[in-house]
Structures are given as C-alpha cells and as structure tokens.
UniProtKB/TrEMBL annotation:
The lineage of its organism: Archaea, Methanobacteriati, Methanobacteriota, Stenosarchaea group, Halobacteria. This is Cupin domain-containing protein. It comes from the Archaea. PANTHER family: BLL4564 PROTEIN, RIBD C-TERMINAL DOMAIN CONTAINING PROTEIN. Residues 40-100 form the Cupin type-2 domain.
Length: 124
C-alpha cells in the first residue's frame, strides 16, 4: 500500500501547458512495470493544455467548475462529476473556457508502461 497526502497545491511548468504553470497536487507509484500517477489539476480562466498523447490510459474526474475536453474530431463541455477516459495514444487536450471567471479542476489518473511517455503535439 502507498498512501500520500496531497493537501498542498503547487505551481509547476509542464510541457503540455499552453499558458501559465499548472496548479497541481500529485502522487505517483509503480506497479509491475507500470507507472501510475494521479494529480488534481486546476485550470484558471482561459487555460488549457496543448494537444498531447499518453502511452497509457488517462482518466479524468471533474471536481470543480465547467471545462472542455477534446480530441482532433470532437470537443465536449464537461462539469463536476463527469468522468472522461482517453485510451492510449488518443490525441487530446483539456482545459477551461475562455469566457469564464471560475476555475476548472479535475483529478487525473494515468497508468502507463515503464516511466510513461508524454508526447506534446502541435495544435490544429
């Protein structure tokens, strides 16, 4: 068992972030050659990620506000309580809307082989 307290959010620069640093709290463990990560990420108004892909599955659970999740083919509005699943290698982005004054937060769960591989892509 691995128990980690993530009560304090920190800002950090991440290659997938479009605008300012991510506001996040996270935990990471390794199980049988797979790396499992989880973090709560808060997007301030207008913030979003770049298009990116993960080598493993990514699951988002919306904890606060309204936001957007998108693939190259589809864009969906999401809100508190929504669960989003991106299969391995699906190009996607997620973030807040430009016209809001409220933050958008989600917890992500990411299970990837090895150390995991994030590929940042060009926007369309």
């Amino acid at each position: 068992m691995d128990v980690t307290n993530t009560a304090e959010k920190t800002e950090w620069d991440h290659p997938v972030q479009v605008t300012t640093a991510l506001l996040s709290e996270s935990v990471e463990s390794e199980f049988g050659g797979n790396t499992v990560r989880s973090a709560e990420v808060t997007f301030r108004p207008g913030e979003r990620t770049k298009f990116h892909i993960h080598a493993g599955i990514q699951i988002l659970y919306v904890t606060e506000g309204d936001g957007i999740v998108a693939t190259r083919d589809e864009e969906r509005e999401v809100s508190q309580g929504d669960l989003i699943v991106f299969p391995p290698d699906e190009e996607h982005w997620h973030g807040n809307t430009e016209d809001t004054t409220s933050p958008f937060s989600h917890v992500y769960f990411l299970a990837e082989p090895g150390d995991g591989e994030l590929t940042v892509l060009d926007s369309p």
